[in-house]
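ARCHIVE CARD
Drawer: 12
Card no.: 0347
Subject: one protein chain, sequence and derived structure
Cross-reference: see card 0346
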Amino acid sequence: MARRNDELAAVIAEAGWSQPVVAAAVVRVAAEAGVDELLTVTRSHIAMWVAGTQPRGRAADILRETLSRRLGRPLTLADIGLAGASDTVAVSEWDTDTLTTLVDLGRNSMDRERRRLLTGAAVYSVGGLILPRDPWWDEAPQRARSRAVDPNRRVGETEVRAVREMTEFFARRDQRHGGVDGRTALYQYIVDDVARYVSGVFSSENSRRSLYSAAAEAVYVAGWMSFDASQHESARRYFTLALKLAAEADDAPLAGHILRAMAHQAIDLGHVREALTLATASVERKRYTHATPRERALIGVVRARALAVDGQKSNAIAAIHGAEADLDQAVAGDDEPQRVWFFQEASLAHETARTLWALGDLDGALRHFRASVRLRRADSFSRTHAVTLGYMGSVQAGQGNIDAACQTWSRALDAMDGVQSGRARESAVTMRTILSPFRNRGIPAAAEVDERARVALRRVT
């Protein structure tokens, strides 16, 4: 006879949920992760798991994540009484050695790519977004300095330059072609070269910090490409690792840049509270004040969107104005880090439009989306151009102007040629969803865009 799972019962009680509510929450998380076999979970499943029946397949992980989100802290399978004999106790990502994570995460990412078609994407861990307290950040540089090194491997400016050149290559490729194609090559570079440099002997503390910052940016780009590929848990893990490296480099602006990306992802996935926490952290601890004007503008406008989705209209508008003022002060090449090369007027207009859209200002959103499209160099930013046009069409449809939306979406589908991007794919899905009521109404423009979007979904990964 199965032993009653008292641990699971206790966690559910702490969550303050009834078994039917737990079941409904599990279904929502399963739908987000694409785990279709769990979309039929009901109260009886929860009752059986509490009674001692072992969940099958990915149910245990989905249940763990569901309860972690409710309680606002990461839970292990052991915490909910579902750790098997072969399971190991989970160690916080913040407490795991950075070099070990650097090697293991890259290898695991490549393994996950091979398994992805069979097992589906890993569920995005909201519990994993909880940031460590101030002492952790203060102690990070010393932890890096005291790490065991390979005495036969000397690292200096040559290696720093090599990492930065490779990172820039992948970042520019991502803007043009999307994050789906080529990211496994970056994963391999991180494992084979970046990890080797991090474990080397540095000629000075400045050299160490420079290399760690360069490594953090490479890992960040791997995270951004995973995000664009809709591999959200992989992206979160890469962002977390990049943030650890930035902390060990004592590079506050870079840490702010990465926290901004984590907030962006959390907003897109609908985790409003966590997004606002991350966006707030991006401007703390000198992350904003020590950044260049262009980077301050980027950090600030994403914080504006986090405030907007949280319903803080006046604060969001003020943050937009602050970002505009920061970008006005930016001068290209003025000791700017390479990572902000892409953030120009078109980018600010795009993020401003999304902020106003979240506030319900469709006219303002449309005006800024149009400005973004007009100002952007479409040949260098094909992925972003396609996504912007997709959003713009959705706003026009929201205003009841289906003809204008179809014209805009047609341009978006043109821009998707050669782009492999999860976000571009989501745009095509949105087009078909919005146009579904018009399929049998004999509207030529709607029928044409709907069919083109259907075809695009076959080739846009």
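Annotation on reverse: The beta strands are 154-155, 201-202. Residues 205-228 form the longest helix (24 residues).
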